Amino acid sequence: MVAQGRTRTVLARRGVRSAALAAVVLLAGASVAFVTTESTPGTRVEEHTHRVPERPGSAEQVDIDTSLYLPLRTPAPAVLLAPGFGADKDSVDEQARELAADGFVVQTFSPRGFGGSSGRIGLNDPDREVADARHLLDRLAARPEVRLDGDGDPRVAAVGASYGGALSLMLAGTDRRVDAVVPVATYHDLGESLVPNAARGGDAEARTPAAGSGGTGVFKSGWSGLFFSAGLDHRLSADPGSYSGTSGGLDEDVEAVCGRFTEEVCRIYVDVVTTGTTTAATAALLHRLSPASVAGSITAPTLLVQGEQDTLFGLDQADATARRIASAGGDVQVVWFAGGHDAGMPGPDLRATISRWLRFRLTGAEENPFGAFEYDVQGAVRPEGAVSVRTVRAADYPGLRTDRVSRREVPLSGSERVIAKPPGGLPAAISGIPGLNALVSGATALLPPESLDPAGQSAAFDSAPLSDQLLVTGATTVRLRVSSVGAPGDGVLFAKLYDVGPDGTKTLPGSAVAPVRLPPLPEDGTPVEVVVALPGVVHPVESGHRLRLVVGTTDQGFRATVADPAVYRVGVVGALSVPSVPAVPTASAWPIGQLLGIVLVPAVAAALLALLAARQRRGRDVDPSLRDTPLVVDGLVRVLPDGTTAVDGLSLRVERGQVFGLLGPNGAGKTTTLRMLMGLITPDGGEIRVFGVRVTPGAPVLSRVGCFVEAAGFLPHLTGRTNLELHWAATGRPAADAHLAEALEIAALGDAVDRPVRTYSQGMRQRLAIARAMLGLPDLLVLDEPTNGLDPPQIRRLREVLRRYAATGRAVLVSSHLLAEVEATCTHIAIVHRGVLVADGPVVELAASGDELTFAVDRPEEAGAVLRALTGVSDVDVRDGLVHADLAGIGAATALAELVRAGISVRHAVPRRRLEDAFLRLVGEVR
Asked: In the chain, what is the straight-line distance between the N-terminal and C-terminal CA atoms, in Å?
């Protein structure tokens, strides 16, 4: 599994890598080498290379590269931990160490064809990869550190993500020694995943929430191409001459075409990619390589963890596996999490809970931390850009042991429409980008509607605005009536369900699309009806929103059978059937009836006290007297993990109209202070208030703050303009409020704004980052070292921009260690050294403090000589017709008297304004 936010998905070194808390198995055999290394405290790691038969009974051998993690206390139960497709054992090192720290012996490996392992990729062939896993069970059973259930029978769990998750299921279905299984974001049937068909047919409604369909479907070319490319031999591009390809077809070019895949697997891919569908033989072989072939034999307790953001292996795959295991009497629990191949694998919290589940199943030392069915509900985007997520628990997974899932009927309006498939299927509708859908989902709002669903190729059917919230929990179904207009073509359509807001904004939950291979269509135009199971999602549709069903003829993520044009007449019969599973937050999943009888009165009292405390906290969280003050910092303290105090009792105040400089040497605590201001880290003491509201991580008031702290992060392959547009789209606020034109004017990038950011210089990136901070014209603008990388003309222009910005009644906070720039730009400053405030106030006052004076006289050189002759006067400097002198030893009155006595006319004498001197003096005082 992979921590959310670090998406390392199934596909390999060349693309997104699968780094999962995936624990699966591996090969074993004769150990030809091993190395013991030190690991985290209490954990040892042994590196082994095992040699196993290429196939059962084969004289040919394959080397498997493995690592064995040994915990502090043994004997202990074991976990077989495997990487996803395209990755090696190193990709699961972090998760292996976590499990070892929790007391498990952990076996990791590089699968055949990846990392340091030899052999060819058989896609979890029972005679290859699954046999390798059984060999590893033998190895674990021979280790004295592993707890045994009997002779040759280790106490062991098989855990894996994606490719590894399928292997864990197949091992559990063929080897009774497996005591628990945790497959994550994996498939039930590889053929149904890569060549799906959403056409269900018949009248029976599915009992379970996310039941899909089956049969020969439409080739998922986008994902499959990435999948296949991850198994190509890297030598092909490095030395193409080593392959002597001919025109004789696959038989003569198998190594060049197939890379590290077995010839059997390669033939499957070539068959599907050239025809766009599967033959009966291909479907049978894919079934043999899938958990579907053994799921009915799994008796070990199984925790199915499936991603809600997964266009590769959707919720329907876990649904099918759950049904098969339950029908055979197996113990199965289901968890849907807010991630998947499009959004990242489980993060640390979910990984830790899975580890508790493994202890429950393998040692009995824990209570079961999961219910029968849990799922994540993603809410609105928070001000800092993260999405709120809550986990809820249902009484059971509907349809397994209880009644079928409840459904709500949502009527659709719209008459039959005629839609056309263009020659070659181009242009094709755009629904998402495999593996990146969660990252770029907001970008679809920037595309013209004809790119998402090309005009003439799609028909839309809308519901009325909903009167209350509807939580879609699984696969919505709809009945279509379809007829051909002329030649029926290949009989392929694509259906998807949008959430449409009152302002017309469309959201495609999970970027999910349902490919539909229609039954034969009569050439005379007689319609046929088909029930379509849309992809399973978890998505709250708010009151006032509408559901929109779009049926089209193309989608760029799929390849239909033929390229001939076709025309269809499409209509909807009846209403959308939307599944909904009632659930409660996991924190409340307790035996409520018993608790009411035992602790009703204390609970009510506690609730009243909690309500009172919450009101008091809310009262403290807002200071009405500061509602018009952009920033107040009071007694701020931050202690670093090594015990160093980075910020020590810092207090300052920024008012409207000010350009406020936070000035200090490197390491003074400036950036740490700004990170606390933005809610990125939490203070150890004191508080920060923005417009009277106390700042906490994700506080809504931060939406009034624009910031640029530390390095600027942009998507390098996109243009500067698109980066700004995407950033604003992620806030969910209207595009008109972005003031994009003003931001682009500030960036002053000219034509470069429409070039990819990867071509930008450091200064150009810096200007783009400042412009991004100014999007929406925030009331408080926070900039960390904004002049880094800028040339002098750009610095001068930035000064003017910041002054004008503050003059509109807003405030600007600038952090810098450049004295001259702060003096030239800021109206007020706070000088910080080693986390301590040493001075603050207007720049002119701080710069003028001290005993240095500047004299305007009629004879500067003579005045300089007079002052140098006086005892107690130092640092006399005559420059540009002015005389500067330090009068600390005698005072200004004495110096003026001596100049007048010498006959020199003094027009005026003023304090010398040099911020540099004041800064050095103040910093020196606290050294």
From this structure: 49
Q: Yes or no: say if 554 and 457 are a contact pair by the CB < 8 Å rule.
A: yes
Q: Within 13 Å and on the Cβ side, how many CA atoms surround 475?
A: 31
Residue 874: strand pairing partners:
886
Side chain identity, residue 379: G
Phi, psi of 529 (to 5 degrees): -110, 145
Q: What is the Cα–Cα distance from 22 to 185, expressed in whole angstroms?
A: 10
Residue 124 and residue 163 in contact, taking contact as beta carbons nearer than 8 Å: yes
Global pTM value = 0.61
Q: Name the token pair of 74.
A: 């043994």
What CA–CA distances, in Å, run from 337 to 314, 366, 407, 470, 898? 12, 22, 22, 19, 83
**Whole-Å CA distances, 884 to 713, 862, 866, 899, 907:** 46, 13, 12, 13, 14
Report residue 233's pLDDT band, with 50, 70 and 90 as the boundaries.
low
Provide DSSP, 173-238: HH-TTEEEEEEES--S-HHHHHS---B--SSPPPSSTT----SS--B-HHHHHHHHHTTS-THHHH
C-alpha 671/C-alpha 788 separation (Å) is 14
Q: Can you tell me the distance from the alpha carbon of 514 to that of 549, in angstroms, rounded to the nearest whole number? A: 11
Count of C-beta atoms within a 10 Å radius of residue 907: 8
Of the pLDDT bands very low, low, confident and very high (cuts 50, 70, 90), residue 146 is very high
Residue 437 CA to residue 439 CA, distance in Å, equals 5
φ, ψ dihedrals at 217, nearest 5°: -125, -135
- Name the 3-class secondary structure at 913: coil
CA distances from 273 to 263, 426, 430, 493 (A): 15, 18, 20, 18
CB distance 515 to 558 below 8 Å:
yes
pLDDT of residue 13: 31
CA distance to 68, 472, 829, 838, per residue, from 654 (Å): 57, 46, 9, 17
Whole-number percent of the chain with pLDDT over 70: 81
| Cα separation, 316 vs 328, whole angstroms | 19
The token pair at 212 is: 């899909």
In the chain, the domains with their CATH numbers are: 41-191+290-367 (3.40.50.1820), 221-275 (no CATH), 407-585 (2.60.120.260), 624-845 (3.40.50.300), 849-911 (3.30.70.100)
273-277, 622-626, 790-794 — which one is most confidently predicted on average? 622-626
pLDDT of 642 higher than 70: yes
